[in-house]
Design brief:
Layout lengths: L4 E4 L6 H12 L3 E3 H9 L3 H8 L1 H18 L4 E3 L8 H10 L1 E6 L2 H8 L13 H19 L2 E4 L5 H25 L1
Parallel strand pairs: 1-3, 1-4, 2-3, 4-5
Helix pairs in contact: 2-4, 3-4, 4-5, 6-7
Bound molecules: shikimate-3-phosphate.
The site of shikimate-3-phosphate has 10 residues, from loops.
């Protein structure tokens, strides 16, 4: 497994905000798979969904993971909320690094994203209901691909960062201990 910190979770769970703060704290660069794809395609995620459809976007996410496995080391990687849905991506995520799942409630997502126009899947009449349904479907998938679950609703950034960095510290220490013993 490569030494990358992967942040996964539903839209609006705070992957970008947590990623930016972690990036400062740990002095690691931050890669965002949505931005990576947008730069490659020279189109926004919404434009990609509108022009090519969701399936094509999902394939771009898989291609992005494959490329990052070859190039990313020691980085923080924030992955799009739907990326863990594809089974093939679970193995790729495992190779790419340790997955921290930022777990959020549907109410918190709705409050954070109401009025947002950049998430094509939420441009519906009743975004609150769409969030509730999608999150219920996806939660088991996020849990399945996570190494660590981090509750984010009703917690400060300091608390979230502390959990991630402490866990990481322990993980790295154990890993080094294991290697020395072996
Ligand atoms: C999606 C999440 C978005 C983006 C796209 C689809 C999803 O990323 O990849 O709109 O299916 O949950 P964020 O989780 O960064 O908002």
């Amino acid at each position: 497994m490569k030494d990358n910190i992967i942040l996964a979770g539903f839209m609006g769970c705070g992957k970008t905000s947590v990623g930016i703060r972690l990036s400062y704290q740990l002095k690691r660069t931050l890669i965002d798979t949505d931005k990576w794809i947008e730069q490659r395609q020279k189109r926004t995620v919404s434009e990609i969904f509108a022009s090519y459809g969701e399936k094509a976007f999902r394939d771009m996410e898989t291609a992005c993971l494959k490329e990052l496995i070859g190039t990313a080391e020691g980085q923080i990687i924030s992955v799009g909320g739907g990326l863990p849905l594809k089974k093939e991506n679970h193995e790729l995520l495992k190779k790419l690094g340790r997955v921290y799942y930022l777990k959020v409630t549907p109410e918190a997502v709705y409050e954070r994203l109401k009025g947002d126009t950049t998430r094509p899947l939420l441009q519906v009449e009743d975004p609150r209901e769409r969030i509730r349904i999608l999150l219920a479907e996806r939660e088991p998938v996020y849990e399945a691909c996570a190494d660590v679950t981090v509750e984010v609703s009703n917690r400060t950034f300091e608390e979230i960062l502390e959990q991630i960095t402490k866990e990481r510290h322990l993980y790295v220490k154990n890993d080094e201990g294991g290697r020395e013993a072996g």
